[in-house]
């Protein structure tokens, strides 16, 4: 006779799934997290190419950098998955470069119709 704990473990590890059960691939919370991650990654990519400075892009870049760095550590530490580790590191690099571009000082662009200083013949 097996213990009740063993029976519960056997049910958990059983690979025969009842086909009448509904499988939920992604619930409401998972969908919200997915959309938020997609928006934040999009903002950080946009921050790479826009000419102005944006605090929103900088914050998105920080979030992408931290999240992707933790994802890369988990992908490497848990499963030694090189493709997922590289993908997370690329995302972390995108976020880091976005933050650098947003906080970097920029030269002021010349205004149209601005006056140039006159040259003097000494």
Protein architecture, described:
By secondary structure, the protein is mostly helical. The chain is built from 4 helices and no strands. The model has no long low-confidence stretch (mean pLDDT 80).
Short description:
By secondary structure, the chain is mostly helical. It has helices at 4-13, 28-49, 55-79, 82-103. It is elongated.
Main sheet properties: none
| Average pLDDT score | 80
- Low-pLDDT parts are none
- Count the DSSP helices: 4
Which radius of gyration do the C-alpha atoms yield? 26 Å
Structural class: mainly alpha
Number of strands: 0
Helix content: 55-70%
Helix-strand sequence: HHHH
Q: Tell me the overall shape.
A: elongated
- Termini separation comes to 108 Å
**What fraction of residues sit in β-strands?**
under 5%
Characteristics:
122 residues, mainly alpha, 4 helices, 0% strand, elongated
What secondary-structure arrangement, pairings included, does this model have?
Blueprint: H1 4-13, H2 28-49, H3 55-79, H4 82-103
Helix pairs in contact: 2-3, 2-4, 3-4
